[in-house]
Amino acid sequence: MSINNLIGSIGCLPEEEDFMSNKIRYRDGYKHQLADAYKIKLKSNPVTQYNGEWFDLDINGMLTIKRNYCWDGASGPTWDTKNCKRGSLVHDALYQLMRMEVLPKSYRKHADKLFYDILREDGMWYIRAKLWYRSVRLGAGSSADPKSLKKIYVAP
User: Fold this and answer.
1) Residue 89: is its pLDDT beyond 50?
2) Pseudo-torsion of CA 79, 83, 86, 89, nearest 10°?
3) C-alpha dist (Å) from residue 18 to 3, 27, 50
4) What is the rounded distance in angstroms from the CA atom of residue 17 to the CA atom of residue 8?
5) Taking the mean position of all CA atoms in its chain, how far away is CA 134?
6) Strands 24-26 and 70-71, bridge-based pairing
7) pLDDT confidence of 20, banded at 50, 70, 90?
């Protein structure tokens, strides 16, 4: 098997001509990458099924965030700590599924509540977790909108 066929078969190449091009296509704004797949049973079952490049969601609400998924962690005027990594991962994945219209935008309240629950479960101080929850409830609605999909850039 040639290197082009091997790389293409593992999903790195949309088309062979892109591999030989002097241009790249990329999305900006990520700082974390998942080393292993992560599974979580959603408390509020979205009653939908999806199998994609970065996520699998079954009809029973089991969400799998696949290995190598990238997310941006804590947003806003704050700092990333270990007790916010898992919450931000799941929250970002759910919001991305809403942007992709796999989940309805009405699922946002469930995503935000799950975010808060995970922050608390992972040891975040109550007041900090509550502030983060209120912040996403007040200001993150546009991030669940399909119009907010990350722009694709081309370089050079």
Assistant:
1) yes
2) -10
3) 14, 16, 28
4) 11
5) 20
6) unpaired
7) low
- What integer pLDDT is reported at residue 2 of this predicted model? 45
Structure tokens at 42: 């959603």
The CA R_g of the chain, rounded to the nearest whole Å, is: 17
How far is Cα 134 from Cα 76, in angstroms, rounded to an integer?
A: 13
Give the integer Cα–Cα distance in Å for 60 and 29. Answer: 31
Neighbours of 62 (CB within 10 A): 13
**What pTM did the predictor assign?**
0.80
Closest CA to 63 of 84, 22, 83, 34: 34
User: Could you give phi then psi for residue 46, rounded to 5 degrees?
Assistant: -75, -5
Instruction: Give 55's DSSP letter.
Output: E
Per-residue buried b or exposed e for 81-120, using 16+ beta carbons within 10 Å of the residue's own CB: eebbbbbbbbbbbbbbbbbeebbeeebbebbbebbbebbb
